[in-house]
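for ur thesis appendix - AraC family transcriptional regulator. copy paste whatever u need, i formatted it the way the template wanted (i think)
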Amino acid sequence: MLTMIIADDESIVRQGLKNIVHWNDLGIEVIAEARDGQEAYELCQQLNPDILFTDIRMPLMDGLEVAMKLEEQGSDIRIVLISGAQDFNYAKTALDIKAEGYVLKPVIVDELNEVIRKVVNRIKLERKQQSEMTHLKRQIHEHFPLIRNNFLRNLASGVYVNETSIQNKLEYFQIPIQSDESLLVSSLQIDDYENRIEKMSEEDKQLLSFGVTNIIEEIMTNYNSGISFGMSENEFVQIYHQSALSNRKYTEICAEIALCLKNFLKISVSIGIGRPIDKISLIHTSLEDARSALQYKFYTGHNSILDISDIDILNDTPNEGIIPSDLYENENRLMGYIKLGDVEGVTETINGIFDHLCSGRTMTVDYVQGVCFEMTCIASRTVQDLGESMDSIADDRLVVLDTIYRKENIADLKSYMSNLFIIIAQYFSKKYNQKSAKVIRKIKDIIEQKYNGDISVVKISQEIYLTPNYLSMIFKQDTGETISEYITKVRMEHAKRLLKSTDLKILEIAEKVGYEDPHYFSKAFKKYSGIHPQKHRL
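the 3d part is after this line
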């Protein structure tokens, strides 16, 4: 319930205002009356009502003066003015002091109700907004560490680009980094993380994360070297400020972090170190470098500290291994074995590809993973060409990609890829034996029905809903001849029968077996049977 004071120098007016309006229905309680402006002002000071409903012209102090004095004091009491004088200057002053309403005498009840209702609604709306803002501020205070960490994650992800905005946020979150100083990022991951947490409860996972975070932060604080935060469940990012960059101090800090985590939590970690940057808006690039460096534990194994600058030197060495033409040849051979359902051929080809990939460590992890992903994409297209979906035969494509990039060493990756393609080959080996005979019968039926019209491998494939390449492959493999050769054979055998059993002209027979050009028909017939069509009649 809102509170209100009515001020008017005439008692009859005050009583009338109290009685003609159902204040309770409007959510208002009249808590006092004032006979003049001075009394109204004093009552407002004592009772602090929500609304002052006051006449403008009163003794000692008029309503406008009361309103102005309250405004000067910063009071949030809402003022509704009432006056019998329709004076523009009064109305203008009422606007200047931001009065909530202005009512003329004689008072019309409906108009008064409408003015008061609007004032009440505005007060309620503002209080609701204030309450929500207070609640929001309390939530921000309660969740400040989480909000701070979220800012750091976004910063490291390259969400922010404006240096001034970043600096303001750094100051707000009390992060001891300047936006214009040289910085460097490292990324830490727990080795073999998925296997480590497989049988852990959620509480134990959180305790592990907390332990890692606590140890890293303590070491970073001891060295006064920067800040650390959790980027994801198994990525802990460190931002080193300028003092830690001299003499590559950060490498010493990384080594101590790894050692302490091993001693206190009994876990092995690997750390990737990015390139230095000269402004904080580029921090995501240093993190990307750190992640790229960290991938090289693919070759170096667990408990590795990998600096991207060292890897850059390694990458300057000419790569050896599969040259593109050999890779494409092996990929094509692999797809051929998949189509044929040749498990042995798939295994042999995968072994050959990985023998080259494992022959040296000069190939980047991205390259090795890229080869595997490329083979998966080609296999997916191959399977699709065969009228199937790889997702229904083996793992979902996104799962395959995720698994490829999760494998922590090349031996596990080889085993996974080999098993993946063997599963696909086994599927087609089984399916081929069941389906190929039925498909070939369907192809022959279509040719027998439509040999005398415009028929081709493409048109047949459209009827059977299989790709032309797949149809051609299984037909050739099963019959020893191509579909085009079979179409020609059917046409020629029908032509032979027509030549022997009818008196039709060569031109007419050519049309009946699907040839528009009789000369071409005669040439094709002679090639097929060894003699001219006319001689076949003799």
